[in-house]
């Protein structure tokens, strides 16, 4: 299997740490989310959402929905590369998609999809992006070019041909 095309804007590089390995000998699901979260922080920095912004403005983001797909195993010391793609944004929200690749072999290991809200930390309520942050989001979205919509985005979890499904049980 050759290297896959790396899609999206690079936002994070790291490696699979020993403490991220589970009893199955591969990276545990919780650490995929942690690595994706590190990448979210990096993407936010490109928007202008830094620790100084959060402290000075008392505004940040909250994740309200996420979905991770696992494609191929990663093991201890594997290098990882995470890219991001803005799928949509409005005055208070951003929908973004991440891809985690093996940093040397280039295969797609996992994807992460996130919906985040901009929040006023003083009142713990959703609030519009300040213009400078909105401009940062616009700039990143423009810089990514015309990327195709990811096939993993918006997927529904389901068993293709279930022996049992609650959806099929008469009410």
Describe the global form. globular
* E-strand count: 6
Tally of contiguous helical segments: 3
Major β-sheet profile: 6 strands, antiparallel
Order of helices and strands: EHHEEEEEH
| CATH classification class | Alpha Beta
Which value, in Å, is the CA radius of gyration?
A: 18 Å
Unreliable stretches (pLDDT < 50, length at least 5) are: none
Mean pLDDT: 95
Which fold name fills CATH's third level, the topology? Thiol Ester Dehydrase, Chain A
Distance between the termini: 48 Å
Short description:
The chain is an alpha+beta fold and 171 residues long.
SSE order and pairing:
Layout lengths: L8 E7 L13 H19 L3 H7 L1 E12 L8 E11 L3 E10 L5 E13 L4 E2 L4 H13 L28
Antiparallel strand pairs: 1-3, 2-5, 3-4, 4-5, 5-6
């Amino acid at each position: 299997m050759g290297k896959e095309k790396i899609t999206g804007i690079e936002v994070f590089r790291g490696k699979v740490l020993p403490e991220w390995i589970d009893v199955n000998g591969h990276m545990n699901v919780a650490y995929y989310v942690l690595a994706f979260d590190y990448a979210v922080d990096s993407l936010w920095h490109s928007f202008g959402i830094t620790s100084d912004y959060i402290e000075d403005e008392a505004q940040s983001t909250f994740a309200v929905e996420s979905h991770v797909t696992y494609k191929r195993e990663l093991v201890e010391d594997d290098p990882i590369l995470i890219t991001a793609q803005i799928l949509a944004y409005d005055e208070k929200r951003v929908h973004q998609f991440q891809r985690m690749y093996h940093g040397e072999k280039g295969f797609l290991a996992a994807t992460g999809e996130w919906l985040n809200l901009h929040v006023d930390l003083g009142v713990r309520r959703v609030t519009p992006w300040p213009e400078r942050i909105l401009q940062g989001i616009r700039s990143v979205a423009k810089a990514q070019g015309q990327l195709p919509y990811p096939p993993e985005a918006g997927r529904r979890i389901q068993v293709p041909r279930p022996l049992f499904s609650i959806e099929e049980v008469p009410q």
